Amino acid sequence: xxxxxxxxxxxxxxxxxxxxxxxxxxxxxxxxxxxxxxxxxxxxxxxxxxxxxxxxxxxxxxxxxxxxxxxxxxxxxxxxxxxxxxxxxxxxxxxxxxxxxxxx
Length: 104
What we know:
The protein has one domain: Immunoglobulins (Immunoglobulin-like), CATH 2.60.40. The protein contains no helices and nine strands. Strands 1, 2, 5, 8 and 9 form a five-stranded mixed β-sheet that branches. The protein has a four-stranded antiparallel β-sheet with strand order 4-3-6-7, with no helix packed on it. The N and C termini lie far apart (28 Å).
């Protein structure tokens, strides 16, 4: 299976969260992780900025600037959108196990 490796808030040593903004989370449906989902990062105007594929454990991570963002999840089992606010540098966790059917 192709996808990103499992990710967590434990970042590589070279990442300085006092200077970088990291948006991360897990895509799940019915409390089960969703591997191979496409997670898109859209800017405040809805323009595509970046895309990653979730790992086997449903994890994803983006390095972004502070500001208003939208996550768009696409998978054969469903699609969802969720607004995210990154107020400044640091870790921005999307609520754990955000269910595809509940992300609006």
